[in-house]
């Protein structure tokens, strides 16, 4: 059983076989040189120290070779995105054919909806979570309007029940059971950004497919946090950013997954550019468009190598450690965090994230009574970096790559005094 003491937290750090990873990141510091207590890896992951060297390599090769770097660089830029595919596929539980790194998240959602949101006059509605991330909501609303539908009428929200915070899968089942004939697409956050709830993706795919609806998953809060096993889940598509748990830097490129069952379907509607044209004949130029199989068949442009170099630096760390080890530490770290918070004798805060480790990633969402934002402000003044999400939640994500049990202990000690 856990204990609420500094000694015990330090003991857990000693026993943690991933504790050496922290030193491989830059941890922001206060003016006195103390490490910040950083709990916002769910918003922007910290910088691996080796990132600089990966980017520098490409700058050097650009300086040295100019355009010839596409073939002559130590890591040739022509196939550079392929260097990321295997590691990324492992992280989300996919086959390499099913994954590519390209664009940014919302852009990828749109490109995927070009192919997988094919509404008819009667079957056109889209289901999202009632507190879906705003960008996802805007994206689906604009897709509805683009196809000539009313954005309000065409959107179905899967809501928590009255007086509850979390979603129940039976409620999604009921929606799809009753209205499935009108629903074209389910687009659901695999881990909800607000509550931290990790939904049963496989079950969602089964529910949608039973009524011939396409199923897409936003994994912004899942990739590098939980192990979504995308291939086995059977979902049609997914997308995620890499600057949160995947530590690739602000605004960096995103991941895209298209299930193998669609890999060779050349009939799917999609947008085209030279980068989803057959690799073998791409540079023969005056060729008719011939789409590539798999996820690469959704690319449009030649990608930004400097951003990909940063992703590669991070993925190499994930490759070395592996998701199973990270996930094992994560369950323990967040479990300890939860335990410590539950020791505080107060009714001013409440954790709304599921207590079952199988139904959450590393994040805990702490709901504050009367939406008192000053608590978050005071945490920040104490160099505890969390984030406030309207209407009333402080999100805290202890990340197994670089957060320690001591971080979590110190954070809760300060939280206690503030309450
Ligand atoms: C972070 C996040 C986004 C951000 O989208 P970008 O296109 O990368 O700016 C979108 N959706 C969800 C669910 C997110 O968590």
Describe this structure in words.
By secondary structure, the chain is an alpha/beta fold. It folds into 2 domains: about 5-40 and about 320-419, Aspartate Aminotransferase, domain 1 (Alpha-Beta Complex); about 55-320, Type I PLP-dependent aspartate aminotransferase-like (Major domain) (Aspartate Aminotransferase, domain 2). Helices cover about 35% and strands about 15% of the residues. Strands 2-8-7-6-5-3-4 form a 7-stranded mixed β-sheet, with helices on both faces. It has a 4-stranded antiparallel β-sheet with strand order 9-10-13-12, covered by helices on one side. Strands 1-11 form a two-stranded parallel sheet. β12 and β13 form a beta hairpin. α4 (about 80-90) crosses α10, α7 (about 170-180) runs parallel beside α8 and α11 runs parallel beside α13 (about 405-419). The longest helix has 21 residues, at about 325-345. It is globular and about 70 Å long. The protein starts with 5 loop residues before the first helix and ends with a helix. The model has no long low-confidence stretch (mean pLDDT about 95). The structure holds pyridoxal-5'-phosphate. Pyridoxal-5'-phosphate binds near residues 104, 105, 106, 135 and 189. Pyridoxal-5'-phosphate (PLP) binds near residues 104, 105, 218, 221 and 241.
